[in-house]
Each structure stands twice: as structure tokens, then as C-alpha cells.
Amino acid sequence: MKINLFFIALIGSLFSSAMALAQQNVTWSFNADWKLLVGDPQDAKEIKADESNWKAVTLPHAWNEGDAFLRPIHEHQTGIAWYRKTFELPQGVPHDKVFLEFEGLRFGAEFYLNGRWVARHENGVMAVGLDISQYLQEGPNILAIRTDNRWDYTEKDSNSPFQWNDKNFNANYGGIPKNVWIHFKHKLHQTLPLYSNLGTTGMYVYASDIQIPKKKIKLHVESEVANEGNAAKGEWEIKVFDAEGKLKKTVKQAFQAKANSKEKLSLQTDLNDVQFWNWGYGYLYRIESNLYVDGQLQDRQTTQTGFRKTAFKNGMLYLNDQVLMVKGYAQRTSNEWPNVGLSVAPWLSDFSNQLMVESHANMVRWMHVSPWKQDVESCDRVGLMQMLPAGDAEKDVEGRRWEQRLALMRDAIIYYRNNPSVILYESGNESISEEHMAQMKAIRDQYDPHGGRAIGSREMLDSKIAEYGGEMLYINKSAKHPMIATEYMRDEALRKYWDPYTYPYHPEGKGPLYKGNDASDYNRNQDQFALEAIRRWYEYWRVRPGTGRRVNAGGLNIIFSDSNTHYRGEENYRRSGEVDAMRIPKDAYYVHQAMWNGWVDPDPKGLHIIGHWNYEPGTVKDLYVASAAEQVELLLNGKSLGFGQRSHHFQFTFPQVAFEAGELTARAYDQHKQVIQEQTLKTAGAPASVKLSLKHGANGLFADGNDMVLAEVQILDANGQRCPTVSPMVDFAVEGAIDWLGGLAQGPANYIGSTSLPAEAGINRVLLRTQYNKAGKVKLIANSNGLKGDTLEFDVQGIESQGSYFKKASNENLPAYYGRHEGLQEGSLKYTRTSLAIKSVQAGANQGDAAASFDDNELSDWANDGSLNTAWVSYTLEKKTYIDEIDLKLNNFRSKIYPLAIYIDDQLVFEGNTATSLGYWHVQFPAVKGKTVKIALREAAENKDRNQHAEVGGKKLDDGVARNDANSKHMLSIIEVDIYKRN
Question: Do residues 889 and 745 both lie within one domain?
Fold first, then answer.
């Protein structure tokens, strides 16, 4: 709980007594006045340790933060680092119980207070609480923390490694890279949601009887109360405040607390006129829980939460009674920025996460390990659903390593069960056993039984227990629980690489091999990266909700922002982001905007011209437009170039267009030939000036040692238009109390920390961080040779502090995002085709397995015996009807082409070859009425070399069922068949 009532001292060191509630429990930031030493001196935990060579830091602060994007992930600095803090107990607050809340440390940590051992924390991910009450003394107290972020760290008691301490995905920002809070409480108090070490669960708030049309819920509040003093009784009061701070409801009831006890209080009440949390509508309520004894406030605990209704059924995800196709990103949990890692200001988390929502993503899947509290709360505010893991690598495990995963999931659920954006708990990054899935589900049922959150795992395609599933790269369908691709599209591209016709003239696929394989997918230019985004999403969209009984529930693109994790291309970091590391959009970002703006079907007004319009005279190239419209026309200086060739539903191609300076306009048309959207690109002139602009939190800019500004620099022509094909060096200078962090660009050491860096494609960004307790004016200056420079001035606000404690104002009053509005009337699901039920099946061989080809289980299949004359299967439908579409999932779908013949009641309706895909091959033909559908292999199947890349660890990517038929020429293997009639 954070109570923002502080004393403002007459001498500047105390908070105002008028603002204080005497002896009321309070929570303050404990981030200030730390000392850091990298190394492991013998006396570091002792009270009288020599701190003369220690560095002063303000948390959150990873001791190796400068490694972010400077070094590849496997070269991040590791070792022992000590943090120390000297503090005195403040006046006017209770001292009976004093707790420290660490939002997370990396990796193992040992805590000493006044030279005495306190505790150890070792999971490297989740928050931990310390009860330091018995170790405190009058006068100065010294807290010393030994952190160890070595890759091979092992648990002290078991000597077991932690599966998620992995060099591929878990960027290693060591020490204390997250916030620390101190809680002062009475012996009678409400507990904190910190199970690790403290064993407490805090508050639990949820809704039942949710009536979306009537905007009514039944609100439930539970709070764990600990009493370490004499028996007490009093009144428990719940207050509900809406997003505007208006008191909506007050409920009171008596309570009793036995001496030396811990028990749970619970109540329920009706709440009317509810604003529901939704996609792009981060509406949050504040629930205040007060304990009164003899009319005096003893303890206040608050939580922010939102109310929404979910369901997971029929292969689909429902939010507030509406089907929502999942669209979004599998983002690295570190969510890092150059030269600082994950320890960014709170508003920057909102800025990054809101960009996802503005690309029309509705979900983020944090990869492998739980995100930190700041990102979870940010997703609440911006209206972005979360798939939240505990900790994993790439496989199921046993013994102590599995127990570690269970404990981490328990801690994560307790800590985040009040956050409305958390929709899915992820039990594994690979399939786990049914026994293990049952154990994970039991944890959810124990600690979050009513939160409306499904628990599942990647894979788990045939699980009877998991509540959702879905593979990594591939298309899955289900009529049962939702199947969501947890990370699709592996391609990489630098933002500066436009196309082969624009400096630096990056040909498609140019670059080194990856593990001996062609690396073209990992070295794309912007044109091809954007087109691949269309091609990949189309495979998911084609089997979206509404396309039959078995559907795909959506997919998450890996990744959103370029990340300092494993990579395959020429740079030392992953460039798969739709935005770069400074969150500057690539063309693929706008492509997703065009395709994703809708609950299932996209808004037809989505439109984006891929690329720029600044070429050398004589350039002739294919132009591409991404659009959800029915037709797209291109005009050059007012003259029509005709309508684009449509492919993959969202791609419109205009072949061999000759460059002509001026205006290039795309017009989108609906089915009635009416113009519904336009976009124009203009040819920019020669560079003339440098333009600076500033971004910071809407709640202010504060001298708390962690708040930041994001400065953007653009290269403009004489008319104020950005020049998209130039990358001049820009020199920055700073005046005032602020620290330079800088940005990122291709070049020596990625320009990390440099005050001179190129404005790639005419734009770049840099970060600056405030200094603790140093307010005042700051000036930022930017110059580039031969261009008019620019200067920005801004103010850093002071903070309210008392000794080692302060009010972290940058963490408060952050505005919610309501850009998509309530979203409760988005229209009903459109059904485009009807699945036709199969009554029986006959096969040329292995008849006993034939039903596996339509059993809604993508881990089972039917296959013949390898002879061409047995490579057929015939399905009899329940009734004679018109048939005009078939979906097939064939084994080796990524790498094999099957020559097929398809018959309906002995009438040939298709003869040709299948295509490789990420799951389902689709065929459509003129409707034929019949009752039997026969699928036969005509001749030998053909292997293709494409899509043969290995995973980063050398593992071959999946290509169907476990049995590999790649070299079986006359083997027909059907994993699933779906037969349809179009509506």
C-alpha cells in the first residue's frame, strides 16, 4: 500500500504534519541513498564496512545496466555485487512491524541488517518480502544485500539450477533492477501479497454475477489480517472509488482478531453502474480496505483493479461477452531499453505498452518469466491483456526444478491476481505432463479461483486439463479450449534497411548464415519484413473465429520491440520488433494497425503504404499497400496507377512503378466502390534542419533518480517534412542536473552511451534520467553538420523526501488509456462458413487410425502404409449437402508438397499440389452437392528445402506429428481435416 501523506519539514527534511495521520501505517519508496560495489569483499555485510569506494545509486538500478544492447545477451556481465543503505526510523509512523518489499532481484540475494543475517531469496524473478522488525535499532540501520547474477547460479539448499536463468531469452540485468518499498505497520495489520519468505497473501478482489448489459456485478473483497498483539475487535470498512476518485460505495462490518493469529476477512456487495475494463479501455477502481479499533484507523490497504468478464470455450476467448481474436506480441519480459535495461521510468512502460494497443494488439505474452510489477500495472492502465508465465525454458522438468516452477507460479498468482489485464497464466513454454498441469491448475484454484483467468501451457494440444494451448510458430484449431500461437514470425530487420533501392541498399536476405542455414528470414529489409507480417497473419486470420466449428483463437508475434536477447542476424541483438529498441515504428507496425483493428474482423478503413517516396530518378520498383479494404487504388501526382493485385487478403501489389517526385496516394474502397480511407506520401526535399521534441510522463517529471525523458530528433526539409532516406550524425549536449543514457544505432558498439549518433532514416531517440533530489532547469541541444540545430529547455520537479524515504510521484497519477472506448457494442461474430459433420471414414490402410484425422487432436493423425495405392481416405458426411471448402493439416506441413486429388461422390473437384504452410492448407472449389469426400495421393510427395531453420539451441522446428514422414514418398498423413459449406 502506498499512502502519499508526508511531512514537509520546516527545515526541508520532514513532511508536513498537517498531511500526516499520526501512527497510521504508511508505505514509502526505499529507492534512495544506496551504495553499490561490484565484487565480494569479506566485510561488505558488516556495520563498519568501508564504503569509500562504493558508488552512489538510486534504485531501480542494475549494476550492469550499461550492457543493454552493448553486449550480446550471453556476454552480459555477471558476478557478485553488493548494495548497502543506511537509514533511520522516521517519526510519526508505527514501528511495530516494518516490512521491505523488493519487486525483484537478479538472481540470488542474501540480506543482512546491522550485520545480522535476515533472509535469502533465489528465484531471480518475483517479488519478495522481508520482516525486518526484530533487526531494527535506534539510530542508523545498515541494510546490506549480496546479489549473485551468475548464469550458473544454483539454489543453496538443493544445489539445483533454475531453469529460467537462461542465456538465450532472460537478459541478465543484475542486482536490484526493480523498485523497493518500505511498509510501516501496527501489530494488527492487513498482510502483503508476498508469499515468498513472508508467507502472506494480502487482499483478493474479484467479481461474480457479472451482468454486462446491466453494468452490474457482485463485488467480493477478501483480506488476510495478521495480529501479533492482544486480541482485538473493531470495524472493517471497504470503500470503492471510481477512476475519477469518486466514492461509489462504502461497506462496513465488524471483525475480531485473536491474539497471535492470522485469518481472512471477506465480504460481498452489489455494485451498480460499473465501467468494465476492456481492450484499450483501462478503467480501474481503487478498493480501500480499512481496519478501525475503538474508532481509530489502525491499517489501510488499497489495491487498484478492474472488472471484466471472461470465458474460454468453443475454441475461442470471450471478453465481456464478446468473442475476441487474440492479436498481439510475445514480448521479452525484460522489455528493455538501451543502456538502462528494464529499469525505466513508470511512464515509459505505459508509452511502450500503449504503442502495442495503438497497433491494435489486444494481448502481450511475456516470455518465459513473470514480468515486473511496473509492466503488469501498466497493462492495466492501457487496456492490454496479458499472458503471464512463472518461469520456464523450453521443456518440462522434474524434481527440484519443477518444485521451483510451482513455487514461482504461486508467488506470481498471489502478487498479480488483482490485476484485470492478467487473463492467462502460462504454466510452461513447452508442453508439460498432465500431472504437472494438474498441479499448476490446483495452485490457480487455491489462490485465484474466481479471477476469470485460464491456465494452460504452450503446446498442450491434447490436454484434458489445460484451459488453453497453442504452439509456437504454427496454426492450431480447436473446438474446445482456445488455441493461441504463442510466438509466430521469426524474421528480423533493422529499421534503417528500407529496400534494395534506398541507401544502404540492403538486398533481401543479405547476411551471414545462421547455424549453417540460409539466413534470409533473419536479414530482411523493411519492405519484405512488412510483407512477411501480412503473410504470416493471414494464415491465422483465415481460420479465425466464425470460420467453422474448429477455429484458431489468434496469435502473438515475436517480438514487439528489438530486444537484447538471442539473435540470428548481423547485429548482437534481436531485431524482430515491429518497433526498434527506442520504440520507433517500423513499417510492420503500421501493417498490423491495418490488419488488427477489430475484435475479429478488421475495420476495412485500415490502410498503409509500405515504404517511402524518395528515390533516385529512374528507379522502378514494386509498391505495396497493406489494407483491410476490398480494393486499393494508387495515384501518382493525381494520375491513377490502377488497382492493386490482392493477395493474402491484406496485401495489394502495384508492380514496377516508376518513381516520379511528388505525391503518392493510396485510396481504399469498400464493397460498394466507395472511398473509405486515403493516405499520401510526399517526396521530401533536401535536409535543412534538426528538430527536437520531448516526451515524458503526463503526471510530471520528477527528480527521483529514475524518472526519464525521451527526446526525439528528426531531420527535416525546408517545409518541415522528415527526410526518410538520410542518416546524418547528430551531436547532443546537455546542461543541468540530468544523466545522459542515449540511444541506439548501427555502428561502433551500437552507439550505446554516445552523445553523437546517426538519425537513421531521418529519426532517432535518446533517453535522459533525472538525478535524485536535484530539481531545476535542463537544456538539451542537438546539432548536425550543415543543418540548423535545435534546443529544448524543460524543468525537473522536486520530490517530497524524509531522510532515506520519499514519495515516488512518478509512479502515481499515471493516466489510463481509453482510446478504444468501452467496446461493449462491437457487433456479433460473423459466421463465414459451416463445418460439415463426418459420420464415418474409410481408409486405404490402417483403418483403425482413420478417425484420428478428424478427432480435434492435432497430436494424432492417420497415415497409410507407404504404398501409393493405399494413400487415400474417404469421409462420409452425416447428410448430403453442398461442399465447397476443405482445410487439411498434413504431416510435414512446413516442408512437404503433396500431389492430391479430391472427389465428392466420385466427382473430381480438385487436382493439384498442396503448398507448404505453418499448419493448414486450404482449397476452395465451386460448390458440389454430395455426401462423401475422398482425398487421394496422386503421385510421390515432394520435399522442399524452405522452412528448415533450427531453433536457437539447434533444435529442429516442429513439422507435424512426432513421426517424420519427410522421406516417405508415398505416405499420406492427415492430422486434421475440416470440410465446409460457405455461408
Answer: no
